[in-house]
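sorry to bug you again but im stuck and you know this stuff better than me. what follows is a protein written twice so to speak, once as letters and once as structure tokens for the fold. id like you to explain what the token line says about the fold, in plain words if possible. anything you notice is useful, everything is just below.
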Amino acid sequence: METLASSFKYKNVGHLEFAQIDSDKTYLWVFNADKTPPHIGISSKGKYFSLKSGGIDDGIGIDSIVSLIKQKSIPTLLIELAIPKLPEINSFFDQYQSTVAYETTCLEPIKKILGSGNEDTIHDLLSTLLGRDQVVAVLGKHLPNDYAGIPFYTLEDIHVYLSNKKA
């Protein structure tokens, strides 16, 4: 199996103030952005969606997600996207039940929503989105002072992590 590697460095990570989150905009949420692998979700129209090992976050209000980040001080990146016409997100997540090691990662439905294809890691997806000029801003909260970007990881790291979560 091919080992694909990922790391993501972004020059200008702004400080996230939760009050500046606009529920009309589309965001990628990168949780535990200082760990490998991070977890990825997406929000649009004030609703958050995510595929996890325990199931799906299906249209949760972003206020609940913000409360969780505050309560647990989760190192988070919020990436504002310029996506002109986003399809109905829930129909993409309805195709899944959970992440599955060596089959389905949290990135799968998000790639389909964003019209992407072969990206295996958030780094790959962000590179694609930057190439399309669809990243408007990258904001961070609860990140370490020496934070230098999403750490290096491979697709294999994701699958090992998912395997261990099921164990």
In short: Confidence is low (pLDDT under 50) at residues 1-7.
